[in-house]
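Progress note, project year one: complex with iron/sulfur cluster.
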Amino acid sequence: MTRDQVFEFFRRLAEANPSPTTELEYSNPYTLLVAVVLSAQATDASVNIACRPLFERIDHPRQMVELGEDALRDAIKTIGLFNTKARNVIALSQALIDRRNCEVPRTRDELQSLPGVGRKTANVVLNTAWGEETFAVDTHVFRVCNRTGLAPGKTPEEVEAKLEKIVPQPFRRDAHHWLILHGRYTCKARLPECWRCPVIDLCRYKPKTPPPEERARSTAARTASRGSSATRTATGRTASTPRANRSRSRPTRLP
Ligand code: SF4
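Model obtained:
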């Protein structure tokens, strides 16, 4: 995309959602850090369901350590990888008590030195808690950036580096939220909803998904054409389409 197209891409996402933010529920930088650690390979909705009652009682590293690993594991057992995550949350809470006087760090290196905190988690905390212009690349951001041609890359790190380079002001601070929300609700993994996409004319993805009515019409047409290809045998019984043709005539899965 050209610089003007990148600007227009974000201008439209910003117009549709002027104040994007994380969908994780949290009350302070510490609970945000915990929620983001718990959200690895899990949905924000599942993390919120588990954390709502937990964060009513616990919003400080000391309280978490007092709660203990067993009770935490029980509280988050509906979230994937809960064993490892419970261990990491207790360990990172203890590290915050020992090294940071219970404060959540404001630098990437310090954040990434905590148990269970990788680059993506650090980027989310730096951005959402501390207002830094960071670009957390999760599965949604990775997909949107590659599909659209906005910031193609083979790895999340490559995509992040490209976003760093191309995203203009005044969109840098909220860019990753717009991209996540766009991927979660419009440019979905199995079937992007191109017919209602605000950046459809800027996006390089070729097999654009048509509106549902149009897809329903083509499905009906395909079904009708399969019906008419059936042949009548001499005995009056309907012969099914030969196996080789059947497999050819299966509807192609939409990308
Ligand atoms: S046009 Fe389709 S593929 Fe492109 S960004 Fe929009 S939803 Fe995604």
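The radius of gyration is 24 Å.
The CA atoms of residues 2 and 103 lie 42 Å apart.
No further modelling is planned for this target in the current period.
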